[in-house]
Amino acid sequence: MKKTLVLIAILTLALWATSHAIIGIGVRTGLGSYGTSDKTYKNAAGADSIVAGASESGLLFGAHVDFTALPMIGLEASATYWPKSKTVDVPVNTKVKTSYSVISFDGTAKYKFSIPGSPITPYIGAGPGLYLSKRKVEWTPPPPSPQPASVEDSETKLGIHGAVGANLKLPTMPVSFGVQGKYSYILSDPKSHLLSIVGLMTYNF
Question: Which terminus of the chain, N or C, has fewer Cβ atoms within 10 Å?
């Protein structure tokens, strides 16, 4: 009997939350900085080449779904894509082109601060994330060295993040605008992180 009552209560709460929920779907773009750890590869001559970790910045873009059932509490699911490439000179006159890309999938629980009479809603949030990173390294040694070579690797890592932001929603418009800063810490690689500052546009149903 108790299990039945608990199930009824959960279903009632879920139906109430769904009927009062605001669901938004939107896009985002901005600046991201991805920090990487050192990597060691075999170069074209068979020797070890170390590509030092660095923090690289570039444009990122993505999409998100926002769910609000309670005035002060919201949930956000987002996906972003961050690409970057650079060419550097390393010892023995070898040019190395390194290409990075990171796809992140984040879930964020948000606590919203109410400002009476204001269309702006600031918030803080945190949650887990899944990060798919890919790095490709290409060597171009000077003649008469061996032909150029390349190697690539990909990794899937778990992380956690914190976020801070604000949304602007006018009463007569279904579209809201916002800005969000987020810092993601990769749990399995302390030297890797993703910092982003993005602008958001969301259509609310």
Answer: N
